[in-house]
Amino acid sequence: MKTVVINFLYALGLTVCTETVVLFLLVRLLFKYSREKFTNITLIFAGVLASTTTLPYLWFALPEFIHTRMGLLIYGEPGVVIIEALIYRQFLRIKWQEALLVSTACNIISVVMGYYLIR
């Protein structure tokens, strides 16, 4: 059990860092929102909130029902994308399309990074 917790904490740190950086890049460079609209602290909080809200379910709750990594990717990740998009939409008050794009990009990059860094 100790190894699972350590692996989870490592994955959580990686996920939070990766997804928050992607969030920053999209909000500042793609959508061109200024610091007056969203402070850096607001973006950091949004990134941390989204990741820490969803990752425990993907690691601990869903594996009780879905027993393969591929199944978690196919069935779990879309749910995570939707929940995180809802968080971004409500917390940042951005358009639905932006929230879905941010959430999708954050999670695709996070999954790819996790695949290569956590084996």
Structural class: mainly alpha
Q: How many β-strand runs?
A: 0
How much of the sequence lies in strands comes to under 5%
SSE pattern: HHHH
CA-based gyration radius: 14 Å
Fraction of helical residues: over 70%
Largest sheet: none
Low-confidence stretches: none
How far apart are the first and last residues' alpha carbons, in Å? 18 Å
- As for the number of domains, it is 1
Describe the structure concisely.
With 119 residues, the chain is mainly alpha-helical. The protein has four helices and no strands.
Could you please describe the fold and organization of this structure?
By secondary structure, the protein is mostly helical. The chain has one domain (2-117). It has helices at 2-30, 40-61, 69-92, 96-117. Helix 1 packs antiparallel against helix 2, helix 1 packs across helix 4 (96-117) and helix 2 packs antiparallel against helix 3 (69-92).
Task: State the main characteristics.
119 residues; mainly alpha; 4 helices
Topology:
Layout: H1 2-30, H2 40-61, H3 69-92, H4 96-117
